[in-house]
Every structure is written in C-alpha cells, then in structure tokens.
Amino acid sequence: MSLVTTGHKMSAVSRIRRSLQTHLWSLWPPEVLDSSESPSASRVRRYVRALNSQERRLSDQVSSDPAHLHRFERSEHSQNGEDGIIAEIFARLGAKNRSFVEIGASDGEENCTRALVEQGWSGVWVEGDSAKAAAARHAADTRPVAVAEVFVDRDSVLPALRQAGASASPDLLVIDVDGNDYWVWETVDTCHHARVVVIEYNAVVGPWLNWVMPYNPRHRWDETRRHGAGLAALARLGSSMGYRLVGCDSHGVNAFFVVSSQSQSFSHRSVRDHYVGPRYGLPFGHPRHAYQPFQADPVPEGESRGIRLEIVPPGCTEVRPLGLVYVDAVVHNGTSVPIGSSRSTPVQLAGWWLGEDGLRLCDEPERSTQHWRAEPGATVHLVGRVTAPDVPGHYTLVFGLVQESVCWFDGPGASVTVGSLAVR
After folding, report:
1. What domains lie within the chain, and their CATH numbers?
2. Span 416-420, average pLDDT
3. Would the pTM count as exceeding 0.90?
C-alpha cells in the first residue's frame, strides 16, 4: 500500500507499521457497544498533554505566519470558522463566477455556503434528509439556490447535480456527508472541477495513515470514528486531481484545498504540518463505538455537597487570543445517584474566565461536553476545555460543575480556580 509523502523521511519499519495500522482501521467492526466506562486517568492525562502540546504548536505556526488561515476563522452560518477561512481564500484568489456546490448542506441555515448566498452567490445545495431539505428550500426562498433532495452516493451524485444545474467549474465545492466523502469527491471531480474544495476529514486517523472508509452506498453515520478518510488519503486524492492542501480549521474538522496552479499565496506545508487533531467530541474525538446514553434522576437536594471537582493545572502560563486551554478534571461522585451525560439531567463540566477586576467575562460558561458516567462513590477523569479571551491580558481560569436545568453545584470543591494565565 502506498503512503502519502508528508515531508518526513520514514524508515522501513515505520512504513510497515503505518501500512498495518491502515489495514487495522478498515477491520474495525461498526458494532454498537456500551461504552459508558470512563477512560483511565493515565489516558486522559496523556491526551490533555497532547492537546496542549498541539495548541502550542499551532500557536507558534500562527504567530510566525501572517497568512495562516486560522487567523481568519469566523462563523456566521458555519460551525468551525469556515466562513472566515473561505472569505480569506477568495480574497487571495478572487472569485470568477461566484457559484458553489455544497453536498450535505443541512437546513440551509448552518453550513459553509449560506454566508456566500447572503453575498449574492448562486449554487446548489444537496441534502438527503427530507426535513432538512425542506428547511433548506425555505431558507433559499427567492435566492438563486437550487436544492436537490437526494441521498448521495457515487451513482446518484452526478445526476443530481446535473438536474440541479450545477456549474461544471464552480468556484467552491463543499462535501460533508459523514461517510463516503472521499468517493463522492473523486466522482464529482470528473464533471465538476472547482477552484476551491472544502471537505471533512477524519482527524482521529491522524496525519500519517492512508485510510479511507471502504465504499458503502448504504452507509449512515453512527457518530463513531468509522467514517470518511484521513487527511493523508484526501491529500493524495486531491494531488491526483490537481489540488494542493492549504490548511485545516482549528477544530480538526475540515480540510481546505485550492487548485495547485493558483496556490502560490498559501503556505506550502507538509500534510503533517497542516494537520489539526480532533479538538471536538471530548474525549478523543469521535468514539470507536456508539455511546449508549443512560437515564438518571437529578442529584437529591442536600447531596450536591458530595460532588467534588479537582483540576490538574494545564502546565502553561500563557495562551494566544482565542486559543484553547485543556485540563485534566477529576470528579468524585459522593451522592446516592449516578451522574454524567444522562438523557434528562446531564452533568457538565464548564469553564469561565475572570478579568483582573474579578468579574466573569461572559454570562454563560463554556461547556466541555463529553460522554461520561460516574456511579455513586466512583471517581472519573474528564477533559476540560475553554477558549481564551480575544483581548490580551491577565485572566483567572475557573471550572465548575452544573446539572443542566437543575442547578450549579456550589458545595466545597465543586468549583475550582485553576490559576492565572496570560493571553498574548
């Protein structure tokens, strides 16, 4: 099996190991298991260290590169800053026909091209979910956007685009189908060659493995890591079709490609240096198996003082504006009921910043949403994540626990001040 060249020399042993790992990824069964068991303390600590190390690497890249795409992230209708990155890409390239194709366009309110529609672009939204397609038609209203309701696979995608009147050379192609993205891109490019492509990649695979989900026209995403393709595989495919990888968003969700002949104004890094790991779906990105939610009653009145929170400081003393800080959070459940991400009254870890005047900077603390469960008397390790303020200065970081729709736990130890960090 061939591997993508990423700018790093590999030994024969490394090549064999990565080839074997690529095959093992394809062998993982897509079964549903009960995954309520929390990860070990050592695994969470290693993961938190890796996340903070990656954040420092990204901060160094951004600070040393005025053209780094992370500087331009902004969300108006997108989820992960794609609106700002796309705007910056076309600020450098210039738009030609201001047309797009978005496959997996959802409801037309939250996607990667709605902001362009607001600016007068035209194009095609493709969505397989009937309710979302109906909402997209409503969102399009009288705008020059055709909505194609079709479940996309290699056989259906080109007829759907042809019937919707998609341009043969759109400025922008977006693919987000949570499964066969690689195969859909390969097929679409035979008739619709865009100048810019935004496609979701599977960040859990890592930057090295040349892994692609085996083609399955009946695939439905089950919220596990078994979907799509790794960044290395997409970079290889893009290169074969005349594209260069120019970046990924800072959450590790989407990869951005530009036609190679027009990529001079973008940073030419290796796949490894463009790669951003999974900074979503705490902990560890999408899980190996689908999570089985559980039912739990609210913590009885008077027992909330039995919940204790400990925070292991992140080890860093400064962070860039809007950078991410991760901590190892230890929760002990001293109540008589299980707590965690239950269906009705989930307990969430949340973080917030205090200014130099001691006042909280935002009304609503930032949740570190993740799947977990702690039986009475049990101790679990969670991953805490918080976004730094956008204005440089010195701030105090605090974490606490909340049972949604019930109360904030305010007993001794349920809220922890981590310490002071500089944003610069």
Report:
1. 65-274 (3.40.50.150), 304-423 (2.60.40.3880)
2. 91
3. no
